[in-house]
Structures are given as C-alpha cells and as structure tokens.
Amino acid sequence: MKRQYIIYTAALAMLLHKAQAQETVLPAPAQQKPVYLTNATIHVGNGQVISNGTIGFDKGKIIAVGSTVSAASNATVYDLKGQHVYPGVIAPESNLGLVEFESVRATKDEREVGEINPSVRSLIAYNTDSKVINTLRSNGILLASVTPTGGIISGTSSVVQLDAWNWEDAAYKTDNALHLFLPRLVSVGSASNDPLKNSLAQVESVRSFFREAKAYLAEPKHTATNLKYEAMRRLFSKEQKLFIHAELEKEMLLAIDFAKEFNVDVVIVGGADSWRITDLLKGNNIAVILTQPHSLPLMQDDDVDQPYKTAAQLQKAGVLFCLSNEGFWQQRNLGFEAGTAATYGLTKEEALSAVTLNAAKILGIDQQTGTLETGKDANIAVSTGDMLDMKSSVITQAFIQGREVNLDNKQKQLYEKYKKKYGLK
C-alpha cells in the first residue's frame, strides 16, 4: 500500500510539472470596443491597395476602411507606422486538428473505416487544443477547412476559425463540402492485377452509389432510412459542393462528367494537370484548389517549374482557383507559396487573392470574409513587411472576428528558452 502511494505521488507530481510547462495560449474574449488600425498599407484582398489607410472594426465586423477614415472617440487605436494589413489567410484543404503527430496512431483521427462514408463529419473530431494551430496563426493563417481522408467518399469538411475553446466555437461554415478521392488512373501492373481496371471499377461503384442515392432521395417516403443516402441530400440540393481530389488530366475529365451527370457543384482538389484543360474547366464553371505548389512536376516531360506556373495559367484562363498545401503543419507556409506564384506570373495582389478571396469563394464564405470590406468579419493580419515574402514577413498582430488573438506558440517558446540557456541575444 505504501509503495502504491509513493508511485501515485510521483505520478501526480509529474503531471503537475507538465501542466505548468504547457503554454498558456487562451482563446481571446469577444471584442468589447471599436478598434482602429491607422497609418497602414491596406491590402484589401480584391486587388485594391490603400496607402496610408485606416481600418476600423467593432463587434467583430469591419465598419470602415479607407484613406480618410477617422477613429471613433471611444476606440482603441493602433498606429501601425507603415506596416501592412491583410485579410487573414485561409487554408482551404487540411487535416489540421485531426492529426497531431503523423507517427503516433493515437493522435490521428482523420479517416473512418470503409470506402463510402458521406455521413462522416470531420468537424466533430476537430481538436482545438492542437499545438499546431498556434503556429499557423503566427504566419497569418486564421481560417482552415478541415478535411477527412480515407476511402473513396471520405465525408464532409467544415471551415473553422483558429481561435476557439471547442469545435462548436470553432465552426465557421459547417459541412460545406463532400470529399471524393478518385483512384489514380494509371496502368502499371500485370494482366492479372491491372490497377487501371481496378480503379475504373471503383469509379463505377461510386457512380452507382450516386445514382442510388438520387433515386432514394426522389422517393416521397421510405420503408427504412438509409443514413448514407440521406447524407447526400445537401449535395444534390447544391447546399454543399463536391470536392473531387484528382491530379491527372483523365481524372479531372471524370470529375467534369460527375458534375454534368449529377448536376452538382464540383471543385477539383489537387489539379496538377489543370493547366492542360483550362478551357474545359472555365466552360464548366469548375474551380480548382491547387495543392502543394512547391513540388516537382507530375510528368517527366513537363517543365521543371510547371507547378510554380500553373496558378498564373489558371488566372489567365479565367479559372477560379486558390492555393493550398498538404497535411497540417505545412499550412504555415501557404502565404510564402503564394509569393512564389507571384514570382511565376501572378501579380502580388492576385497571389494574395489566391489565399484569401478566391479561397473564400470556393468554400462559400466570401460574403463573410476573404477581403477587408465593410460588413465582413474582421479577420485581419498585420505584418511588418510583405506577408507573402518569407524574409520580410513578421506578423505582429492578428484579429479573428475582431478578437485580438495570441500569437505565441510552442516553437517561439522553445526559441526563447534555448536563447536564454545559451546566452544568445
């Protein structure tokens, strides 16, 4: 009994020590009084830039923006002395909050068992206590679409704001997209095990499921409720979009067929080959989420810098697109990848739109956010320099729905800890 007591006491002491060592980054309280950011270069997000401008917001909403705006008498005023003000960056496709350590199975909750799971909701698995979230905010990423993976139809994604106590608080737009992961259409294998044949069979099984779900939903009443078919209702009523994950040209052609056959709003996620079929994408009003723009070309005979040029080619063709990244912690570099796209054909403001306004349009939240315009949510990042440039960007302040959020994170704390340990300035 005495030995058990000693073990219990030691374990309790260890837990208390760990609790004291954790960062105390708490969600910010609701905005209490008007805030004005003055003497700033304001990048609205729609191509407009306001020099020496002022932006004001109250109760979480932008109330004024321009070069002749005067601060209210009861407001908190920040003189930014020429710093840059941007809309918060939006990560349009991520497993943020669903995975903490890729090598630790217990911290991974991004997939469900089975191949067809339209009723799965990623939002309820979103972990607001993830230590990765704070590292994204430090680089100006303030919103993210949390995406499930696994199987062919993996479930629905939701947009979250990155300053919340729980998933209910975090929810910004719920269940806005259903995700379909097309199998890779490549023919590599033997006659007895042809991957292309197997992939086409999987695609046909998905088509059959869509047809059955549509027929089920057309019935006035049912003898039994089918939860998977019921989960398709919002897709067919166009309250929800179908995000089809596809890279190759032939896969994207299948995605266009899905849009036509089932009359649903399709967005292509991945889109490495999208530059080859810009006319078809534009003609069928299909948007593209370009993932992993910092990568090697998909095909051996592609230009080595093709992934960097694709964004500008889509822009020139008039295809709605935005930029994304794979995984969760990599999202912190999203703004810098937009900067690379600006080097390869986009203007700086077009590149900014690719991670703000365009992403908001594709996710269906452009009436709430994506630009710094009157009436929209005050999702704002302040940087000493160009937010799309890794060298000059230092985020000094960030606001989510008017709340000034804490920009501390575990990595900053470790930096300060070891700087002190080794006597570094």
From TrEMBL:
<dbReference type="InterPro" id="IPR051781">
    <property type="entry name" value="Metallo-dep_Hydrolase"/>
</dbReference>
<feature type="domain" description="Amidohydrolase-related">
    <location>
        <begin position="342"/>
        <end position="405"/>
    </location>
</feature>
<dbReference type="InterPro" id="IPR006680">
    <property type="entry name" value="Amidohydro-rel"/>
</dbReference>
<feature type="signal peptide">
    <location>
        <begin position="1"/>
        <end position="21"/>
    </location>
</feature>
<dbReference type="Pfam" id="PF01979">
    <property type="entry name" value="Amidohydro_1"/>
</dbReference>
<dbReference type="InterPro" id="IPR011059">
    <property type="entry name" value="Metal-dep_hydrolase_composite"/>
</dbReference>
<protein>
    <submittedName>
        <fullName>Imidazolonepropionase</fullName>
    </submittedName>
</protein>
<dbReference type="GO" id="GO:0016810">
    <property type="term" value="F:hydrolase activity, acting on carbon-nitrogen (but not peptide) bonds"/>
</dbReference>
<keyword id="KW-0732">Signal</keyword>
<dbReference type="InterPro" id="IPR032466">
    <property type="entry name" value="Metal_Hydrolase"/>
</dbReference>
